[in-house]
Amino acid sequence: xxxxxxxxxxxxxxxxxxxxxxxxxKEGQVVALVGANGAGKSTLLKTISGLLKPYxxxxxxxxxxxxxxxxxxxxxxxxxxVPEGRRLFPGMTVEExxxxxxxxxxxxxxxxxxxxxxxxxxxxxxxxxxxKTGSLSGGxxxxxxxxRGLMGNPKLIIIDEMSLxxxxxxxxxxxxxxxxxxxxxxxxxxxxxDVQLALDNSHYGYVLSTGKVQMQGNSLELLRxxxxxxxxxxx
Length: 235
Ligand SMILES: Nc1ncnc2c1ncn2[C@@H]1O[C@H](COP(=O)(O)OP(=O)(O)OP(=O)(O)O)[C@@H](O)[C@H]1O
Ligand SMILES: [Mg+2]
What we know:
Blueprint: E1 3-12, E2 15-25, E3 30-34, H1 41-48, E4 56-61, E5 64-65, H2 71-77, E6 79-82, H3 94-101, H4 112-121, H5 123-127, H6 138-151, E7 156-160, H7 168-183, E8 187-192, H8 195-200, E9 204-209, E10 212-218, H9 219-224, H10 226-232
Parallel strand pairs: 3-8, 3-9, 6-7, 7-8
Antiparallel strand pairs: 1-2, 1-4, 4-5, 9-10
The protein binds adenosine-5'-triphosphate and magnesium ion.
């Protein structure tokens, strides 16, 4: 098991947001975490990356308890997030932003091969390497955020609301990138409000609703589930 979350309870001060969360990501999988606005998806991600301490429960990564580790160490273990809203440095070029993603690596001189690898997946970014990210299109910015995450050589990449505000054709391209990265060996936690998109492109899925895992299963089975069809797919 790559990531194993057990009985996690999380909140902000006295306001509990997540209740008894159990969630697992196996090596090599794309796992979808779906749910409506305010379900608690981003709260769970903040907890995984060490920005928020849970009331109780545990987060095990590659057999090691990372629940109380500082975020920096969690990143160094290989869990990297592509945050909601992309958070690039708009005044810096594409390449400068990508270099920031490699900063955790000790041998930072040795990032040329990483850059080449990332540019191979995102040729658009290579073409635009000297462009300031503030002037990229929304889709290109998402690509850049994604590529910056990959520069850290993650074992698990967590992508929060990748599709937000983007045209369907661009989202299709990005999803192809996710699949390619997964084929190359990186596990993915795909966090989405777009339930169809996430379940169409993952092995396993969790449905979060008002802070609880309401359903889980193979993504194909979840897509066929009547309740999911009615509540989330509007069918
Ligand atoms: N810093 C905070 N302090 C207090 N409450 C918070 C804080 N951040 C989030 N919340 C609350 O926690 C709940 C879950 O929010 P969260 O951002 O995790 O949801 P989400 O599933 O990511 O939603 P969305 O799809 O809109 O991004 C919401 O009710 C939200 O108001
Ligand atoms: Mg969110």
